[in-house]
Amino acid sequence: MSVDENTEVGRSRDGDAGARIAHSIREGIVSGSYPPGTRIRQEDLASRFGASRVPVRQALQQLEYEGLVTVVANAGAWVSSLTLAECEEVYQMRERLEPLLLRYSAPHLSAQEIQKLADLARRITVDGADTDTFLALDRQFHLASYAGAHTSQLGDLIQKLWNTTAPYRRAYVASWEADSRRIAHEEHHLIVAALRDGDVEEAERVLAGHIRRTRRQLVKSPQIFAD
């Protein structure tokens, strides 16, 4: 194998390791294992994943691009924090953009995919009293509803917005009372019913209200945000 081939193989391995590390940290941030403001040390990641500093830096660069990590030159990296105003702005974006993504997706969802959404909505209703279970199934439900969309930028942007607000949404959902959960469950079923009827405008309307309600409740919970 030539020197150039060896170099390409090394880059490929670093890229694979970097993607694996980024995926693990991303999942940890979304799941709440890495709360906002948590210090992320490159040497700890390198030791944990048995990797060199190169893929670790690649992973942190990717997560910084996604808005999940803040990297300060010669200082280190931290899980990004949002202020209440920043989180509200992200939810304003989601409130307007996710219905558009659903509009792109809806005509391409098969009967089997809509049935999968119905099954997920039922599972959320049955098992959604547990915060971790609710958040995992809710994310699965909404991202599955967008699966029919083929967009160059919007889908990736929506997933990024979901990821950046995940820690705060977790704190909010954990404080829910029974009525809040019931309304969320009903809205999931209404979205499915609208998709089954081919009523995309109704599905968009319910989804926008679903997101708006979360935004308004988050605004009433300033204690979970950074100063």
Automatic annotation (TrEMBL):
Give all residue intervals belonging to the HTH gntR-type domain: 15-82
One Pfam family, short name please? GntR
Cross-referenced CDD domains: WHTH_GntR
The protein depicted here goes by the name: GntR family transcriptional regulator
- What are the alphabetically sorted keywords of the record? DNA-binding, Transcription, Transcription regulation
Q: Which SMART domains match?
A: FCD (SM00895), HTH_GNTR (SM00345)
* The keyword Transcription is assigned to this record: yes
UniProt organism field? Microbacterium terregens
InterPro entries, per the entry: GntR_C (IPR011711), TF_FadR/GntR_C (IPR008920), Tscrpt_reg_HTH_GntR (IPR000524), WH-like_DNA-bd_sf (IPR036388), WH_DNA-bd_sf (IPR036390)
